[in-house]
UniProtKB/TrEMBL annotation:
Gene3D superfamilies, A to Z: Alanine racemase, Lyase, Ornithine Decarboxylase, Chain A, domain 1
Keywords, in A-Z order: Decarboxylase, Lyase, Pyridoxal phosphate, Spermidine biosynthesis
Family: Belongs to the Orn/Lys/Arg decarboxylase class-II family. NspC subfamily.
Protein name, UniProt field: Carboxynorspermidine/carboxyspermidine decarboxylase
Organism from which the protein derives: Sphaerochaeta pleomorpha (strain ATCC BAA-1885 / DSM 22778 / Grapes)
Domain called Orn/DAP/Arg decarboxylase 2 C-terminal: residue spans: 181-335
GO molecular function term, any single one: diaminopimelate decarboxylase activity
Annotated signal sequence range: none
Record-listed E.C. numbers: 4.1.1.96
GO biological process terms held by the UniProt record: lysine biosynthetic process via diaminopimelate; nor-spermidine biosynthetic process; spermidine biosynthetic process
């Protein structure tokens, strides 16, 4: 576990390397046991300092833009491209890097089909099922712009060899099994013409309690029914689930109308936007989230306040020690996935350092400066 005393500057995203390797072993073992292939979704994790290790596990990466494709091509043997819509100025460069290209609509496929070269073409489908409750993250909500409904895909156009679905978010094996069942129900008439099926991300196979036996059974049963279809998964979070933290420092303590807020050197709006978007209250190492009731002796009820000017830049509430003070460090759990990739420099706030804690040693792999802020604006 990270020794916070070795963190030289806060805020800092810190990858806990041993936990990261543990996740890679789980995924590598699944690929050895089962007829399926795991890709890395770059949109979820882009810390390329550890892409060499990732590339030994993930057989390729999924890119949603030219920039992601360029980065993926430096480390991974295969680049699978999918974007809700491709930019005309980027497509010719992107397709040169891609082994698979998935289109969000039939019209878009026909617009680009003559430019595909040797890349395999696929269509994104909408399985009309998702366990995701937050509408912002639900790609199968009514009227969704993502994926072709089954009513509009009775036959496959010439040149299409695969289908791609994405409808999960940190989901279990039961949701994956239900997804596959739903796809087979709605699109099974197309399966004889397919050579690959990509089930997207959201497969949290490394989470404690994930039903791996059900995952194995679902994959094997599908393979027995359709041995000609190669099955892809492209998680982002699973590779780094509970394998990294965000370390912050308390800069001030303020009280207003009976509410005490610990003011931090990090921002939820700028550095942890999912906390406000989902929303959710992140776990804090060594502390508990206040859920009502009597406050135990030696504890106090505290909000955590971010350092930006946004009025809503806060989360909580927590039960912290009644001796918490300026200079104390707080460690937010599970901050590697869909966090670093979404950070902004709103208010001119510097981005957190990016670091690795390995063999008891703390190594900063990226520190941001004024130049990073200035050069991105003009």
């Amino acid at each position: 576990m990270l020794d916070v005393g070795k963190v030289v500057h806060t805020p800092s995203f810190v990858l806990e390397y041993d936990d990261f390797l543990r996740n890679l072993r789980v995924i590598a073992n699944l690929q050895e046991e089962l007829p399926c292939t795991f890709l890395l979704a770059l949109k979820g994790f882009g810390m390329h300092a550890v892409f060499p290790e990732l590339a030994l596990c993930a057989k390729g990466a999924t890119a949603s833009s030219l920039n992601e494709a360029l980065l993926a091509s430096e480390y991974f043997k295969e680049v699978h491209a999918y974007a809700p819509v491709y930019h005309p100025s980027e497509f010719s460069s992107l397709v040169k890097l891609a082994s698979h290209v998935t289109f969000n609509s039939m019209d878009e496929y026909h617009r680009y089909e003559k430019q595909l070269g040797g890349a395999l073409a696929g269509l994104r489908i909408n399985p009309e099922y998702s366990p995701v409750k937050t509408e912002l993250y639900n790609p199968c909500s009514p009227g969704s712009r993502l994926g072709i409904p089954s009513s509009l895909l009775q036959t496959l156009p010439a040149g299409i060899s695969g289908l791609h679905a994405h409808n999960l978010c940190e989901s279990g094996a039961d949701a994956m099994a239900e997804t596959l069942q739903q796809i087979e129900k709605l699109y099974g008439h197309l399966f004889p013409s397919l050579s690959w099926l990509n089930l997207g991300g959201g497969h949290l196979v490394t989470k404690k309690g994930y039903d791996l036996p059900l995952f194995r059974k679902t994959v094997l049963d599908f393979h027995h029914r359709y041995p000609h279809i190669k099955l892809f998964f492209e998680p982002g979070a699973a590779y780094v689930w509970e394998a990294g933290v965000l370390v912050s420092e308390v800069l001030d303590m303020v009280t207003n109308n009976g509410v005490t807020t610990a003011m931090l050197d990090t921002s939820f709006a700028a550095h942890m936007p999912d906390c406000l978007e989902m929303p959710y209250t992140p776990r804090l190492r060594g502390a508990s989230i206040y859920e009502g009731g009597e406050i135990p002796e030696g504890k106090q009820r505290v909000r955590l306040g971010g350092s930006s000017c946004l009025a809503g830049d806060w989360v909580g509430e927590y039960l912290l020690s009644d001796t918490v003070k300026v200079g104390d460090r707080l460690v937010f759990e599970d901050m590697m996935h869909y966090t670093m990739v979404k950070t902004t420099m709103f208010n001119g706030l510097s981005l957190p350092d990016i670091a690795i804690y390995r063999n008891g040693m703390y190594e900063v792999v990226k520190h941001f400066s004024y130049a990073d802020y200035r050069n991105r604006l003009s």
